[in-house]
Amino acid sequence: MIDKIKSVAVIGAGTMGSGIAALAADKNCTVLLLDISNQAAEAGLSKITNQKRPVLENPESIRNITIGNFKDDFHKISSFDWICEAVIEKLEVKKDIFEKINQFRNKDSLISSNTSGIPLKDITENLDEHFLTQVCITHFFNPVKIMKLCELIPGKLTSKNTINVLKNFLTIEMEKGVVNAKDTVNFIGNRIGCFFMLKGLHEAKIARKEGLSVEEIDSLLSKPVGLPPTGLYGLIDLIGLDVMYAVGKNLENNLPKEDEGLKYVSLPDEELHMYKKGQLGRKSGGGFYRVNVLSDGHKTKQAYDPSTKQWHDAIMINTYSDFESKLYFDNTKQGNLVWNIMASTLLYAADLIPEIADDIVNIDRAMKWGFAWQLGPFEMLDKIGIQNTIIACREKGVRIPRMLKLCEENGFNYFYKNGSYLSSEGVYKSIDAL
């Protein structure tokens, strides 16, 4: 039984796999990085050694990494303590890889998938019980070197030792912020974050018809509501409309049938048009924003209006310099946008315990560490006011979600107080005890 990780085999040398391999190498682990061909593995190694954007903290750590291909070198994983799968997000591909891992692994090694949203139970279908005790999901966020979050998700049979050893390694050696999630579609961060983005696109379409520009929508959905300056459209440019399209399909197939998010799994017509013509975001040279380089070397930023299909010089709007609780409840088109997207996301999160996590702390940490929110959903609800939110729900005819209903029925005004958090059982528990 493995009790300490000293060596890591990473299966898949793409962006995520090479990032995980580099981080492990920097922590002085022996690393094996495999891909379908030597050429693909070498490309992954090149990402790690790229001089413009070095992934390694210490260039000498490259000595800790050996590369290889699936055909000739897969058997080498038998010498490694932790085997981390990081191949393309396609279920059948992952299932094939896991069959090979089961064939060649050391029977004491720990195994994980870096999937961003495919349930572990689907990936490990038909694998033996002993294997299932040693497998889990370790979902890193991109870029691995920078993003603090790693979601750790056990399966039904995953042993406590597997989770404890990986959690200690991820926390102490890799210096990640580990959150405990459950084996549900998209886990915590992407379940809530993708709801924000997909519902956001639909609600923002309505807001544009009411006169709000792309730039103003992003301005409202950034600092004033505790989100990063990318806002909505800037965030989707960063991720890519192709990824959002694929995420929507995964959610359509795997969300519970009563889930609110099912209404928004398809891209709105305008964004679907952008996707089909390859206007995906930064990766394609522009999505909702683009940067033009003039003949004299100066750069100009332009914004794209999906409704008119026209580009225009971007107008930077900074109406608010800090968090504005009142925006959530303003009876204006700006306030309606914030309620329909941001407040709706907070309400969605408040209905997901205990489905995706056992407590509010792990959900709040996931959104802060994985999506760079200033506050987690429950911290935000504390800030804008639980009772204010309940009253607004009543006025707007919105169903009150599970955790807010708990507050209403028991007279709780805060999810957090005096170093404690409100549990789903309706009692305050110590955060330090988690």
* Overall average residue pLDDT: 96
Q: The CATH topology of the largest domain is what? A: Rossmann fold
At the first level of CATH, the class of the largest domain is Alpha Beta
CATH architecture of the largest domain: 3-Layer(aba) Sandwich
Largest sheet: 8 strands, mixed
Return Rg in Å.
23 Å
Strand sequence of the main sheet, in spatial order?
3-2-1-4-5-6-7-8
Whole-Å distance between the termini?
Answer: 25 Å
State the assembly state of the protein chains. Answer: single chain
Q: How many runs of DSSP E, i.e. beta strands?
A: 14
Structure classification: alpha/beta
The coarse overall form would be globular
Number of helices: 17
Helical content (DSSP H or I, runs of 4+): 40-55%
Uncertain residue segments: none
Note the beta-strand portion. 5-15%
Number of structural domains: 3
CATH superfamily of the largest domain: NAD(P)-binding Rossmann-like Domain
Question: Can you describe what's shown?
Answer:
By secondary structure, this protein is of the alpha/beta class. The protein has three domains: 7-180, Rossmann fold, CATH 3.40.50; 189-313, N-(1-d-carboxylethyl)-l-norvaline Dehydrogenase, domain 2, CATH 1.10.1040; 325-433, N-(1-d-carboxylethyl)-l-norvaline Dehydrogenase, domain 2 (Orthogonal Bundle), CATH 1.10.1040. It is 41% helix and 15% strand. Helix 1 crosses helix 2, helix 8 (189-209) runs antiparallel to helix 13 and helix 13 (333-349) crosses helix 15 (377-384). The model has no long low-confidence stretch (mean pLDDT 96).
